[in-house]
Each structure stands twice: as structure tokens, then as C-alpha cells.
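Could someone model flavin-adenine dinucleotide with this protein?
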Amino acid sequence: MKLLVCISKAPDTTSKISFTENNTKFNEAGVQYIINPYDEWYALVRALELKETLGGTVTTITVGKADNEPTIRKALAIGADDAVRIDAEASDALAVAKQIADYVKNNSYDIIFCGKETIDYNGSQVGGMIAELLDLSYVSLASKLEVNGNTATLERDIQGGKEVVETNIPFVVSCAKGMAEARIPNMRGIMAARTKPLQVLPGSEAPKLTEIVAYSLLPEKAGCKFIDAENPGELFQLLHNEAKVI
Amino acid sequence: MATDRFQAPDYYLLDDLLTDEQKLVRDTVRAWVKKEVSPIIEDYSQRAEFPKQLIGGLAEIGAFGPYIPQEYGGAGLDQISYGLIMQELERCDSGLRSTASVQSSLVMYPIWKYGNEEQKKKYLPKLATGEMIGCFGLTEPDHGSNPGGMVTHFKDAGSHYILNGAKMWITNAPIADIAVVWAKNEQGRIHGLVVERGMEGFTTPETHGKWSLRASATGELVFNNVKVPKENLLPNKSGLGAPLGCLDSARFGIAWGAIGAAMDCYDSSLRYSKERIQFEVPIASFQLTQKKLAEMITEITKAQFLTWRLGVLRNEGRATTAQISMAKRNNVHMALTIAREARQIHGAMGITGEYSLMRHMMNLESVITYEGTHDVHMLITGMDVTGISAFRNDGK
Ligand SMILES: Cc1cc2nc3c(=O)[nH]c(=O)nc-3n(C[C@H](O)[C@H](O)[C@H](O)COP(=O)(O)OP(=O)(O)OC[C@H]3O[C@@H](n4cnc5c(N)ncnc54)[C@H](O)[C@@H]3O)c2cc1C
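Reply:
Sure, complex below.
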């Protein structure tokens, strides 16, 4: 099986978030990047598990500039066989999906894995767009994936239960929690990653349909108010008069 | 212990000076420690037991001989990566780091540097995978800071050597499969011998009742007419310089390790002091608490740069014994001071196993003594700058 895993970088969850240029640009100064956890923990690891049981290869693909390479090397250290980087700005979801779809048109894959979303902009769009551009079926937010011959069975968590989906290979899937368990690379993997191929390809023409006009941060969390358990009336008063929710 | 919420301080953006691979190595060890070690270490330490089940994982993350070439099973990493691995291990527990330091720098290093090809092939790959655990026997009951005075000795008995004597305070002794033992020949010259568990007359009684490095096994090595095959003598270096060369490598790792322990104490103190309210305000708002925190981060930052530079020098083969000695003394003392201050910031909570401070503090009491005591390192720096040895005062 030829498996392709879409990998992007995201700010470490402990990063301090701020904006520049009149709140239109994310301030990258001092930010440490990690592999987007949904890509790493679920998409990549499930792809590796399938390779280990069914044979085949796992390739990662990243749309972005050279500053993505440390995270790509980590994906190789965890166990991907090779990596492709499309040297283009990841300007919006369609631009990214178009680059990946163009690459796949020339290099066919059985399953294309994405994370359910990136934890920076939480767009959750790229997987669906790739599927559309390639005219493939798409299963979003899957928490389980099994492959049997030419058919894949997937599970999705839905409100109050699960949905079981079947589709034929090839298809695109976005992976959510439950799909696999995070792996820590080992030293052999880190050493092997030094020499694994990382192919850099020029980007193709891609449309950019959206533009970010402004960012803003959530208001500071207000402190916690404690109310005596004997005094539900005060709780009611506060919810009504101060929080104005009832 | 509560969940490991550690966040590494990097006040002067030292990360910019590290390569992507060095950061990947460090982050890997950090992730492994958080997942596998932090949840259990306090319990093992309280029960004074070595968590043997971690040996496989330590090998997987490259903690055994990271700088040993790949042909002998090592990872072929540079010295800064080695240091960062030690930092992350000691961030959790000095005992864990001790196990890895001894295996790497005191067992694999002498076999790699002073052994012949057969010895390297026989031992190094198994030590790298943790299939074999080693220990290092230099200190004796009557010879600690003055190892050159050792009395453990061996005689040539034709087809083999006969080894007699005893070593004390030996990390990993009770769990070791092999021991690199330093002993004098009939001419009084110090040589390294590889003694294997199971050789007749060789025993390794465990040292009990330690209040420090409780999650690391310490013991004695007793040699009672042990027949050691001649091919077990390390042929390529002899004299006191041979064991001291290993100590250079181990002390370098300790200098990094101590930063890890200090970072953990600082990180915990910073979080606790912002969360703990007294007199209606977080204790972090008191100047006296801020002084402690400010001094901690200053000292950690200084130590990070001292040690990073030492790593560069070591990668270039230019670091001197005296430079390594300075970093070991400075950083361990820094970490111990920070552990004590951190314990105070945590008030009564600081004395419990809920927090790592008291464990770090007690562990560091060993670290400031082994591999050359704090004062002995002072004498090394003193001798280096003046050219006058102050080790003896009997005129000899
Ligand atoms: C937990 C633990 C693990 C250890 N693991 C190992 C191991 O794996 N292998 C190994 O070989 N050893 C090991 N050691 C031993 C350690 O290296 C020695 O304890 C250390 O070298 C000090 O020796 P000592 O304890 O005999 O102290 P001593 O040498 O007796 O020193 C006592 C005091 O006298 C001071 N002193 C000594 N000489 C001088 C001097 N010339 N001038 C001024 N002050 C001086 C010292 O600084 C110290 O304060 C370990 C020790 C501990 C605690």
C-alpha cells in the first residue's frame, strides 16, 4: 500500500500567542513549532501501523517553506520512509489542498491521511478539498480505520454514538482522537531520519481565495467566584444580574 | 506524583544555538521521561528500588553510549546531544541519570577508548541495547578523593590474573553484568580490567539506607582471588590518567544533568508561587520570593551557556579536564542551591513526594560528592590557575 500523510507544523501549545501588523499577522518571534498533533499522533501513526501489518510505504507531504524541515525530520524519525515538501506558501486551505492534489495526480496513493484539523487555525478543510480536487471519497474525523483488501472500514464519533463507514481505496481520511496512540521516536529512528529522502518540489499555481482581515485574542478569563452552598439565591442573583445569562 | 507539567526555561534563547537534531534528541528524551518515568519515579525512590523495567526504554532513546560510533551499537551523536540527554534524565531524577552516565561514560567509554577490537565488539553493542549493564569500580573504602592510593591489585598467574581487593559506593553494582575495575599490577601501575558477574570470588553486596539516589542501585565490589582472563585487561591505556579520562566524560554529562534538576526545581517554583495565595495575593508577588526566582533563572541561564560552550569545545576535542571540572562544580552547586530555595518556596508541600524538590535536593547531595567532591574540584581549578597543587599538605 502506498500511504501519504499530510504533515504541517503548528505552534507548541505552550507558545505565547500575539499578533503584529495591526492584528493581521501571527507573531512568530520566539514560537517553537511542533508537528500538528493530529497529523503526528493519529494520521502518521495509523499510517505506520497499516504499513507494518500490510506492507508498503509511508510518505509525508508538507506544503511550506524550509522552516518546516525540523518537523518533517521528526516525522521521518517516527518512521515515515520519505518526505516531500512543496516549496510554496501555505497561504490558505485551498492553496494547500491544490498543491497536494497536484502532487497526487502525478504520484498515485491508496490512502491520503490528514489530521482532523491543525491546532493553529483549526480550519479542518484541507482533507475535504483534496478529495474534491481528486474526485475521491472523503471520510472526516475518523477515529478508527481498518483495511481489508480493497475496502476500508472507518468509524466516526457522532453525537451520542458512532457511525461506521465503508469506502473503496483510494480515499482521503482526516484522523481524530482514538485512531492510534502517539509514538515517541527512538534513537535508531532519529539516526535513520538523517539519510531518509526529503524531496523538495516547486509549487504549482494555486488560487488564494480567502484573506485574514484580523485576529483577536479571547478576553482574559475572569477569576472564579465562590458561592456558599447554603446560598443558592446569591448564585441566581449573580447569573441574572452580573453574567446576564438567565 | 502529580502530572508532570514541566516546561523548560530558555531565558536567553539557547535553543537558537542548538541544531535541529540536538533539539529532536532532547525533545524525544523529554517526552519519554514524561510518559514513562515521571509517573513512577517518586514511588521507586520512596521504596529505594531501581526501576529495572526502564532499561529497555533508556536504550531505545539512546541514553546508553549516545556518542559511541554506530559500528559499536552507539548512536554516533555529538557531545551536546549527550549532554542534553543527561539534562533531560536528571530533570526527572539524578539516579536515572547516574545509571545512564555510568553505563555511557564509565563503562562504554573506557572499553571504546582503551579496549581492543575484540573487547569493543564483545561488550559495546550489548551495553548499548541494555542487554548488559555495567559499573565502574574506582573508589575504595579508604581511597575516595585520593583514588591513586588504591590497594585493589592483581597478580599475573600465567594464564590469567588473580584480583583481590574491594570497591565501595559503586553505582549499578548490584544490577551489573560487568564491572570495569581499576586495580594495580605488581609494579603498582593502575590498569582497567573487565570483571564479569559469575566469576568465582566476585560479589556485589548492595548498600542500603541511602537518603540520596534512592532510585539508583549502589553497592560494593568484592574480589576474593578472582581469576580474570588476560584478555579482559584493557590494553590501550594505564595509569591514573585512564580512569580520570572516563571521569572527564562523566563529569561533562553531570554538568548538563545538574541543569536539568535545577530547571525542574525552578519550573515547579515558578508555577507554585503564582498559584499559592497567602495574604490574599500569590506568593510570587512578594519581593523575597521574586528574589529567589530571579536568582534561580539567572544561575540556570549562566550554567546553560557555560555548558553549551564546553560542549562545543568537547566536540572540537579542546575541552580540558580543568574546564570540565569547573562546570561540574559550578552547576551541581547551583542546582543544589536552587533545590533548597525551591523547597522553601513550596513551604510544607515541598517536603512531600507530591513535588520533586526534596528528592532532587537529596539526590544532589550525592552528585556534589561523587565524581570529585565540590572541594576537590575547587582544588583542580586552583591548581590550574596557579600551577601549584594544594592536594597534599605533607610535603610529598
Ligand atoms: C551515591 C554514590 C554513588 C557513587 N558511585 C561511584 C561509582 O560508581 N564508582 C566509583 O568509583 N565511586 C563512586 N562513588 C564514590 C565517590 O566518587 C566518592 O564518594 C568521592 O570520590 C569522595 O570520596 P569519599 O566519599 O571517600 O570522601 P573523602 O575523599 O573521604 O572526602 C571527605 C571530605 O574531605 C574532603 N577532602 C578530601 N581530600 C581533600 C583535599 N586534598 N583537600 C581538601 N579537602 C579534601 C572532601 O572534599 C570531602 O569533603 C559514589 C558515591 C556516592 C555517594
